Amino acid sequence: MKEYRQRIADKILTEKLDAMGAVVIEGAKYCGKTTLARQQAKSVLYMADPDTKDQNLIMAKTNIKRLLQGENPRLIDEWQIAPQFWDAVRNEVDKRDEDGQFMLTGSAVPPEINQIFHTGTGRMAWLKLRTMSLWESGDSTGDVSLEELFTQAGNIDGISHTDIERLAFLTCRGGWPKATLKKNDTSSLMQAKEYYEAVTRFDISRVDNIERDPELAKRLMRSYARHQGTQASAGTILADLKANESDSINENTIYSYLKALKKIFVIEDSLAWNPNLRSKTAIRTSDTRYFTDPSIATSALGLGPKDLLNDLNTFGLFFETLCIRDLRVYADAIEGTVYHYRDKNGLECDAVVHLKNGAYGLIEIKLGGNDLINEGADTLIRLAAKIDTKKMKSPSFLMVITGTGQYAYRRPHDNVLVVPIGCLKN
Question: What is the 3-state secondary structure of 193-238?
């Protein structure tokens, strides 16, 4: 059986446990939260275990301290079904006055979040676990390090073994841990399809106990998939749905469904980046639409690898989602955030990785080909020229991430880096 590399989040979790009393691990279902936490836990409470769930819920209401007892770090899995754990854990951390006491894992934001009396500031740390990057699943050589680009971007050297057929498969397979270990491609692709079915049939309603129409959820997710990488408004998505829905559906309905999808970590939009510019160019502040994994988008549209290969424009949109996922995983490891830039003149940059120390890199994402690479490089150079370097740092690097292409290299005439996603790591 194939083995994948250690999760990047393993090290992040260790560091957070060393620094704080408790760590809250969040992320989509099946992304590996419980496995991640269990590897460092000394004792475990499975709140959603069917054999003990009812008893656990009664104990959470009557004697929650009993559920906190166990060797530390103690993992409380699916804690959100009993939100009172938050205040109980926070209070226990205060009493013990020690770090690394608890890990709380959950695949949804608790609907009863307003029952929490204390934010947990100073006691709780947060860790968002995403689906696996290509480096973690063993599908990237990792020859080019994102972290090192911030300190030594002058010369890079890397090779990718991922051709376009393999990339189409990886886009549809996604980064679900179980899918990466399957022996055959058919089984791997099935994981994302079944996840999509579970979201639309059950999870979108269970997250806040509001009954939602599975068919409407599917149509909304199909529309969302078509608008990947854009700043499509709720009104735009509504217009997509109007043809098949009655007049009763409105933007409030759309917002309700989107909010539920965010709570269960199905979608994660990219915030707008606001640099200091030389001119007074207005910056568009709308979020950019993304699923947390590209396979959710392909599943929503019923697309497989062959479909992507037959429609390279659509493939390019979902490849962008794959790259944003990987960049987020890698940026998390270096305390960075991934943003998006777009101004009123239509100048747009797919990704900006911004670190806490003020350093940042500008990134364009292109499926491949010299024309698209040149187009991406031109965008990066034009944006870099607009930034007022008297008020903020110059970009640490300009990079075009590609899907096709074998080698990573620096273009000598403009110093733009060209890096295949199949050789990038944190």
Answer: HHHHHHHHHHHHHHCCCCCCCHHHHHHHHHHHHHCCCCCCCHHHHH
How would you class 193 by CB atoms within 10 Å of its CB: exposed for 0-12, middle for 13-18, buried for 19 or more?
middle
- pTM, rounded to two decimals: 0.94
Q: Is 89 helix (H, G, I), strand (E, B) or coil?
A: helix
pLDDT tens per residue across span 109-136: 765 554 554 555 668 999 999 999 999 9
Residues 294/318, Cβ–Cβ less than 8 Å: yes
The Cα–Cα gap between 106 and 98 comes to 23
> Running DSSP on this structure, what letter comes out for residue 101?
-
Is the distance from CB of 8 to CB of 117 less than 8 angstroms? no
Asked if 352 contacts 379 with a C-beta cutoff of 8 angstroms, the reply is: no
Closest CA to 158 of 134, 132, 130, 131: 134
Q: How far apart are CA 220 and CA 49, in angstroms?
A: 32
Rounded to the nearest 10°, the torsion over CA 275, 276, 281, 283 is: 30
Of 131, 187, 157, give the one whose Cα is nearest residue 8. Answer: 131
How does strand 397-402 pair with strand 417-420?
A: parallel
Structural contact between residues 423 and 408, judged by C-beta atoms closer than 8 angstroms? yes
